[in-house]
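ok so for the tutorial part 2 we go from a plain amino acid sequence to predicted structure tokens. step 1 is just haveing the sequence, like this:
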Amino acid sequence: MGIGLDEIKRRLRVFAEVEAHGISPLYEHLAGHAAEDDDVAGLLTSARNGEARGTLLMATAHRLVQADPIHPLSRYYPSLGGFDGVDAETWPLFRTFLLERGDRARSIIASRYTQTNEVRRAALLYPAVSQAAKEAGGKIALLEVGCSAGLLLGLDRFSYRYQCDGGEQLTAGPAKAAVGLHCALDLAAGAVAPKLPKKVTVAARAGLDRAPVDLSDEEELAWLEACVWADQPDRIRLLRTAAAEQVKHRPTLITGDGVDDLASAAGTLPGELPLVVMTSSAVTYLGRERRSAFLDALAALSASRPVWWVLHEPYAAGMDILLPGRDDLDFASGGMTVLGIVRWEDGKPDARALARTAPHGQRLTWLPL
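step 2 — the prediction. this is what the tokens look like for a chain of 369 residues:
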């Protein structure tokens, strides 16, 4: 059974007030109005179970504007060269544009998943992956679940610059890299700045996704770009740079379910290598029971090899099960996600929250260990 209109409108309201607030004025405005509009919100009733979210509605509209870039609505889309800020005409134009293309919008919503392959999240993940590699003793096999186009699988080839309070900078990764990422880093009370290695050795890598994105397909690349928030064109430029770099180092991308096919995907990587399973805003799309099943699947993998789970997810996407009672990490309390690392030995997890994180890679607040 699909999700009802009232729940869809609630999700749109949360997206506007929590996820987009202070980050994307355009999407905050549009989603806020959509949450009060039965016709626009109703487009999401054609989404597959669990996919009826503000991100999918915004990506669908973005894709339709991409296909009609001379429409007056495009002037509000910096990704398409627009430079007008939100005004009294933005919502009426958006509403009319989308409803006039209602059949096309419903078709996209019914057939697509949100594919936010946010390259900047590599700056969040790198400290945790490097910590897992240190604990593993060096070389690792890296498996990303919910990999989209697999851009984050190249994180060992990116360079990183972390800007700390007081002017200090931490750097990591190769000095000459096509993709260079910047991230603000501050310390929670009692925390000590992480020690970041210049190099992480990923000896084998693969991605698992229910619908991997083939970057050689122009339509697939266009959808990936449409999933980037339209008033953040720098994110699209970075995506294109990372996509061009990935063509030189194509990872193996496997089509499958993140729970049911986890073991078989892990089996494609050399068994003698310690396994780091990485997720970034992927487990959050699973229902509660599937999240528990994902943790069980990770525990099962540890029976045959050392396993680490590096996660950048909302607290409620698994860490609440492994580290209960950490209200300070709850997404609703500040709109921050969690960077965590979990090591499994003989099926038993050792979970640590490393940092609170901005969802799209802008900031890390390092936590005391």
